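Reopening this ticket.

The earlier resolution said the output was attached, but the attachment link was broken on my side. Pasting everything inline this time so it's all in one place.
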Amino acid sequence: MKRTLIRNATVLSMDPAIGDLHGADVLIAGDRIAEVARSIGIDDAEVIDASGMIAIPGLVNAHIHTWEFPLRGIGANWVSKRDYHGNMHRNMAMHFKAEDVRIANLLGALNQINHGATTIFDWCHIVRDAEMTDAAIEGLEESGIRAVFARGTVKPPVRDGQVPYYDIPFPREEIRRLRTGRLASDDRLVTLAMAILGPDYAAYDVCVQDIRLAREYGLVNSAHTWARKGQRKLEDGMWRLAKEGLLGPDHNIAHGNCLEDDELKMVLDAGCTVSATNFTEMFNSERVAMLGRLLKLGHMPSLGSDCDPYFNGSMMWVMRHAFQHQREIDNRILHEQGKWPAVDSQHATHTRDALEWATTGGAKMLRMEHRIGSITPGKQADLVLINARSMNVFPVLPGGDAAHAVVLYAEAADIDTVMIAGRPAKRGGKLLFPETRLAEMQDRLLASRERIMRDGSYVYQPAPRGPRP
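Inline output:
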């Protein structure tokens, strides 16, 4: 069994029993963390000198539509969910082929690794058939990332004489095929979940059938929960599902920022998890990300990047903006309470919290906290080394707050090493994916993007400037 010794790092373990260790060693045996200590004396391991580096658990992107990676940069001037659905789902998504999805997932996943994410919850709501499903999985597998592939369903335009997508239950045969075949095991790098429509978008009977199907096969099910009252497919859908015992730790709510306070408390009391995508919620929603509301109720959020057409899906960025966004809300609340200027102890949100949301929070959302989310002996060796001597971070160490440095200073360029299940995926600041293969896939993605945008008759138009609200 191969052993690797990471020597002399500042370790932010995110494990309360271990804490932070300065000048510490991490021993990796095979795909697992074997030991974390001040000094580990062995002489038969490959040594990574991590002097001047910060070790953190691999970041977990708890909500990303990886297939959208080829369409980066086209959504800057979309002003609502209506624009997103009209341009993406009812238009360009309909022009994707299986090979397009495979290339998108491969390069999108590599981008996540480059930015320190070792695990993604790939909310793949474009697939139309088994061929496209398998292609999406192949892209994830080739990248080497740890991924929970949330098999979703396509959302075509509603046409006269056809059953609309929101009245169609999840394809049972596809889940049976995957769960008894390719993705039968939960111990592999790519595992299975279900991306369902949920009560914001589907008929109630469809919601019930989808959740029961997920439970039958032991899968996490996740639904976009985005609309405020008056815009939902089912106004009382969440309440009805809770009454029937269909909400629980296996149900994930993506966004949820428009849930009323009583609804939020109800779903949390039922055990549901919530993934905040603060970038999207700040960019394209009338209500702010719900991080503080979750924390107030004693629940830990997970974080996701969501949509690449809007912005870079970097989890380093997501962490930073989640912290800053919630800190701004904290400041306003303290000012309204007459507690301004505030002292640090009055703030509810700190940089370490954001790092926890992006590691432990994501692991718990995926029900994988026994495998990932902290640098703990026995867990999978998913970790990241950040170079604290790079100009972005220097001279935080020694003496500075390493968690603060990770969240508010570090960028992808400062990530020296990314390990997934003990295997290096980035080293010396460079992805280890073969360069010739990467260049080939980039060329093929550009051709794919050009064809999809041409077939969708999509031409970028700068937004007209109007009066400020």
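Reporter confirms the inline version is readable. Residues 79 and 389 are 41 Å apart (CA to CA). The chain has a mean pLDDT of 92.
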